[in-house]
Amino acid sequence: MTNLFAPLKFARGPAMKNRFMLAPLTNTQSHADGVLSDEEFHWLTLRAKGGFGLTMTCAAHVQKIGQGFPGQLGIFSDAHLPGLTRLAKAIKAENSLAVVQLHHAGNRSPAELIGEAPVCPSDDPDTGARALTEAEVAQLKADFIAAAVRAEQAGFDGVEIHGAHGYILCQFLSAELNRRTDAYGGSAANRARLILEIIDGIRAATRADFNLGIRLSPERFGLQLTEIVDLARQLLAEGKIDYLDMSLWDCFKEPTEAAFKGRSLMSYFAELPRGNVRLGVAGKIMTGAQARAVLEAGADFAVIGRAAILHHDYPQKVAADPDFTPIALPVTAEHLRQEGLSPAFVTYMSAWPGFVAQPETADA
């Protein structure tokens, strides 16, 4: 199926009305305590109104110590429930699936932000992170599961586990960062154990039709492509998740490891048997033609990031023009404000090279 506007059914929960998923995007817009802000509510609900079949929050941290950036949405306390409930209701009112991404930054939590040393599977001198004790690993697992239950209580259709981009679950997968000698370190199976136990725990603690996805990335951060492909194969075969969200940085690139070049990185995942589990891919999907191309290459849906920042109604624009191309970069801060970004989010995007025009060149 290569029709971007065909519905997509999942094994559990409602179907997506189309093949466009809003990527979980850092935006620094929420309150310091993790409570949802009006600015973040506006940013997300505007994307739901703009036609996305699934609207995902930014990474929402499951422990206070797991905060990765200022203004991050939280889901580690019942104090977050009123805002989350309001958000889920508004997203679903637009016929978009409402999903929270569950996150813990691990050694990427800034000490000055969390007020203590960050944590990691093993001691990490490069970041000053300390190793988690076995009891803390058990608590981390429990807090991911509790966050999923909280999302369910708030009315969300599901959650996505963030196992990518060098954050804590990805750190467990990395043989470079994870040098544990207990059940969560050593072999690839042991390093994946925490993720698998979190999946089992969420399944046991939430309703039968609660949608569950996981985001993985196959490169950088000490990851080996063969290990991530093997983990993906296992997750797809077991069928405990509803979708696998592969963050590839560029859906059309070849692998960085020389032994795997000659074909696209995406192809290593698209070729895996997936049963009733769906496959989404993220990475430089900007034009309508590129969104179609990832479906033609075997993905079930396209995960849209930067194009969704530039155009809140990206799916509607592609529906009107199948070859739609987003506005050229850099864009003005005013354009981003009109697309629902708060001043804090515009400032964050200004740190991305070439994304936001500087005032002196804004009219160029």
Describe this structure in words.
The protein is α/β, with parallel strands linked by helices. The protein folds into two domains: 20-326, Aldolase class I (TIM Barrel, Alpha-Beta Barrel); 330-364, no CATH class. It has 13 helices and ten strands. It has helices at 38-49, 81-92, 111-114, 134-154, 168-173, 188-205, 225-238, 267-270, 288-296, 306-310, 314-320, 333-338, 343-350; strands at 20-22, 54-61, 97-103, 119-120, 130-131, 158-162, 211-216, 243-247, 278-282, 301-304. Strand 7, helix 7 (225-238) and strand 8 (243-247) form a beta-alpha-beta unit. Helix 1 packs parallel to helix 2 (81-92), helix 2 packs across helix 4 and helix 4 runs parallel beside helix 6. The longest helix is centred in the middle third of the chain and has 21 residues, at 134-154.
Give descriptors for this structure:
two-stranded parallel sheet; 35% helix; 364 residues; 2 domains; alpha/beta; TIM Barrel; eight-stranded parallel β-barrel; 13 helices
What is the CATH T-level topology of the largest domain? Answer: TIM Barrel
> Main beta sheet, described?
8 strands, parallel, barrel
The tally of helices reads 13
Biggest sheet, spatial arrangement of strands: 1-2-3-6-7-8-9-10
